[in-house]
Fold this sequence. Notes:
The complex is a heterodimer. Chain A is mainly α. Chain A is 66% helix and 0% strand.
Amino acid sequence: MSDIKAATLEYTTRLGDDSVVLGHRISEWVSYGPFLEEDIAYGNVALDYIGRARMFYTYAAELANDGRTEDDFAYMRNDREYRNLLLLEMPRGDFAYSQVRQLLADVYYTLLLPELVQSKDATLSAIAAKSIKETKYHLRRSRDWVLRLGDGTEESHKRTQKAVDQLWGYTHEMFDMDETEQMLADNGIGVDVSKLHDAWRQMVSDILTEATLTVPEDSWAVRGGRTGYHTENLGHMLTEMQFVHRSHPGCKW
Amino acid sequence: MTPEEQNFMRKINAEEKIEPKDWMPDAYRKNVIRQMSQHAHSEVIGMQPEGNWITRTPSLRRKVVLLSKVQDEAGHGLYLYSACETLGISRAEMIEALQKGTAKYASIFNYPTLTWGDVGAIGWLVDGAAIVNQVSLQRTSYGPYARGMIRICKEESFHQRQGYEALLVLAQGSPEQKQMAQDSLNRFYWPALMMFGPHDSESAHSAKSMEWKIKRETNDDLRQKFIDQTVPQIEFLGLEHPDSAIKWNEERGHYDHGDIDWEEFYSVINGNGHCNRQRIEHHVAAHEEGSWVRDAITAYNNKKNANKIKNVA
């Protein structure tokens, strides 16, 4: 396998991991929402992310060409092998926590996907093109929610500010580049996420400010998702997600 | 009969639909509210046993299918609550009745989903039984309910097929998977038969509901339809029929079947199933946890409206 192809496989797997982990977290909300419309909305967003994961993993399997399928990528790798961003694996928390996480992720994808559409890799470009439409809707929803929760009652404001403060430190690694991603960016395949940080901070700050929330200082940062150095949360999530699949090795479902 | 009553019965007899603004007897209104809200609550509570497996689906494809299905059920709930509101009751009142236990939901959802096979069994048997009932309700006399049923039945057919297909894969899989399918069938078959309600002779609301064409076929007739259609489906799966007394009756043109355990039926209806308390507690807990969110929306909207008024002034 060429270096570029190996890097593309790694990159595609990362994007798949991001999607499946966030999709799973969102899916935990079904039947727990504050009202029925939100159960439906959460279901929608979860479906979009699981759909994305399937597209990325299917492509990863094609690149790997070693007999693995999308499900092998999702179900047969442990947390040390997962390469998702830490922000996305954090537990679902309360409604404010989930909506703030969603906002931080949605703004990220709003900036990342149009760049990925430009990729010389036709499959990555096509997945990005499909995802852009979904993310536009996701951002409209998470932005509206953060505005309402931030500028709602004293309690909702407090919960939302707390969520922002608790999650902020996990956002920095979203803009880190390593050798793999740099090589792909240099070759017009991957996105140089380090160049998105300023625009992300600006967009997020504008929304938080409008929501009467305080943008945290960059005083702490936790990193490690892309190297498999996760929080304790991912192991539990994968245990639950993978147990049926792994209990019946080699079976079809 | 007053002229209003006469006109109402004329419409019923002529198979015309009763619409929200039409005059209707109070008892008719109450009866339709009872049935529709119970249906809506069933969709909503039904999200729990299936939702129980969303985080544990054995493949990504199954996760997508299950998420879509549960989302459809939530949509049905929403649709039915809205249709029911045309009768002058609010969603909040209906939810309160559910949480207080004065309104019922389908008793089947008080049975636990213990294995992945149960997700397939619910789609196949529970949605299958629901469809038999709902196809009949497409001709119900209350217009918004009838139209809702037409739409809902289309989606339920998908649900039934995905459930059956999930079980088919299990039945053709490893010995453990086949056992899983058999176990799910065994546990959900009888409760699915009970979904049609008590025998006609025991059914409290049946007579009036039939007269007003809210119900179009009796509990026992619908149940027989379901029993008949399920026999070849079980055979095709290669599973053992849970009812050892099942036998084709040439004369009747139907399958004869064993006795339903009505004691269990009433016990579960009366709140003593595996999950009765859990289901309501879950609903109440989510609703209460959501109260600060709902308050926030109200507060936010009030602020924005106040600003608008200030700007206009």
